Amino acid sequence: MAARAMNPVQALSDTHLRPYWLDDPGRPEACPALVGDEHCDLLVVGGGYSGLWTALNAKERDPSREVVLIESEECGWAASGRNGGFCAASLTHGLGNGLARWPGELPLLERLGHENLDGIESALRRHGIDCDFERTGEIEIATAPHQVLELRETAEELASLGFGGHEFLDRDALRAEVDSPTFLAGLWNRTGVAMLHPAKLAWGLKRACLELGVRIYEHTPGSELSSRDAGVAVRTPYGRVFARQAALGTNAFPSLVKRLRPYIAPVYDYALTTEPLTEEQLAAVGWRRRQGLSDSANHFHYFRLTADNRILWGGYDIVYHYGGEIRAEYDHHPATYQKLAEHFFRCFPQLEGVRFSHAWGGAIDTCSRFSAFFGTAHGGRVAYALGYTGLGVGASRFGADVMLDLLAGERTERTELEMVRSKPLPFPPEPVRSMGIGLTQWSMTRADENGGRRNLWLKAMDRVGLGFDS
């Protein structure tokens, strides 16, 4: 009698409901909360990548500048510490999105993006930040016949535009890299993506900021932003911070500049990690070059190897809650964990019996153009960068430099970009927002099931530039 296949849900029985990356004995102690008033040249609100890179780069530009950073919890606790660890050169959420929105600027955007990725690698060396940085590249994978044609056409278009570093892989070439019966073809971006440990990056940036003299206050939320004399003031639970300028890196959380809130829809993304693979299990999959992987569907998975040879497997579902609410109880979604487990073993049936060690989720900020937008408020004394839509590990450093350029009033290659000077369309108010997101999600599922054919709703969204990325 044949052995009975394991129910994928059984692999979740001993799972820890917390982010794998943050479940680390090297997690640093929290800095004290702010008690009383503070005064500084630059206040940074938010201790994720946007805020930490802004504080670090501000001190490197001008070591005498007094910089204060406040964080409502601990640095790196939210999206910056629990993402997939894909650090991409792309500033536009992929070449396809960039071509659709800023075709004339794309060569410049690509150059600036690769310079930014090189700058991240240089900063890690300069500050001694060990975050398991591996410049492996990423393979986009076709798992349906129509996606094979789309990837081949993309490869040809990139070559015609002079964008090197991309290689089309047919089924056999792809499965020689990573073996799955579901893989039909792939497009390998060889140079434009690195893998890293996201929490270690945030913790390393925090340490580097402190060493350069940034004053960091954790467990210190900012609740109100106002203009004051020649600067701004932000209220905190036990005091206020008075600053000449401020930079906001608040990601999915409600912006202190209230007019920006309609531009952001906080959505929830979820992930699993396996237990460490044995040598035999790893050999059954291949993956010797440790590339990041993602499939090409509208509802896509992203997956990669960690330094200790676990597989991180995330994505597919993206969950929006009415009114854009962010709550701790939304950080876990058992139905999505079950779905991810089922999809994992469909992709890698040779790993039957592997168990999942961690499961988690959390909010990310998405906007209607899927890539960051920038600007100033309060008479140019406040700058912001928002809307990275899950691709902010690398692009947030670029966003930090944009904010610093804007605060300095400088005309640079960055500030002259149409991408920087323009805004996405805002999302409509409720209940239209929820209905539109629901209809878009349904339509993307239908497109995945129907050879990629987009219905009238998706075509209309494409025409007006209003979308919702999975």
Automatic annotation (TrEMBL):
Keyword Metal-binding attached: no
Residues in FAD dependent oxidoreductase domain copies: 41-403
Pfam families cross-referenced by the UniProt entry: DAO
SUPFAM superfamilies: FAD/NAD(P)-binding domain
Top-level lineage group: Bacteria
UniProt KW keywords: Oxidoreductase
EC number: 1.-.-.-
Molecular functions per Gene Ontology: oxidoreductase activity
Entry keyword annotation includes Oxidoreductase: yes
Enzyme class, broadest EC rank: oxidoreductase
PANTHER family: FAD DEPENDENT OXIDOREDUCTASE DOMAIN-CONTAINING PROTEIN, SARCOSINE DEHYDROGENASE-RELATED
Protein name: FAD-dependent oxidoreductase
Organism from which the protein derives: Streptomyces orinoci (Streptoverticillium orinoci)
High-level lineage: Bacteria, Bacillati, Actinomycetota, Actinomycetes, Kitasatosporales
